Amino acid sequence: MEITGRLVANAIVRTTTSDKKVTDFRVAINRRYKSNGEQKEETTYVDCAYWRTDALAPYLTKGLLVQLYGHMTARPWVSRDGEPMASLNFHTNEINLLGASQRNDSDGAKSTLKRQK
Fold first, then answer.
1. What pTM, to 2 d.p., does this model score?
2. Whole-angstrom Cα distance, residue 13 to residue 8?
3. Domain spans, the chain
4. Strands 114-115 and 65-78
5. Is domain 2-115 classified as CATH 3.90.1150.10?
6. Average pLDDT rounded to a whole number, residues 30-48
7. What is the C-alpha to C-alpha distance for residues 28 and 42, in angstroms, rounded to an integer?
8. At residue 115, does pLDDT exceed 60?
9. Are 76 and 84 in contact (CB under 8 A)?
């Protein structure tokens, strides 16, 4: 599966109890559409985990446009108020860095860094 979105915050690296490092980050995926002639936008937030290496973490910064390959899972949980909740989690196998946010990418250049299996 492929998703493309912008990072909403800088990636963080955490270490599991079994001493494995994982890079965690969140992306926003925007969908634009028309409804009754009116332009609308919908944003979906997806939590992502990249287990292959933590070397990409310094490059995964807020506003960066990324193309990700992997698989999606849903994680149900119960809030403190006892309300059922769910989040989308993307288990990332490959990351393509497509470019900085528009405000940071003044020359419009497209940089690509690809990490595979």
1. 0.76
2. 16
3. 2-115
4. unpaired
5. no
6. 93
7. 10
8. no
9. yes
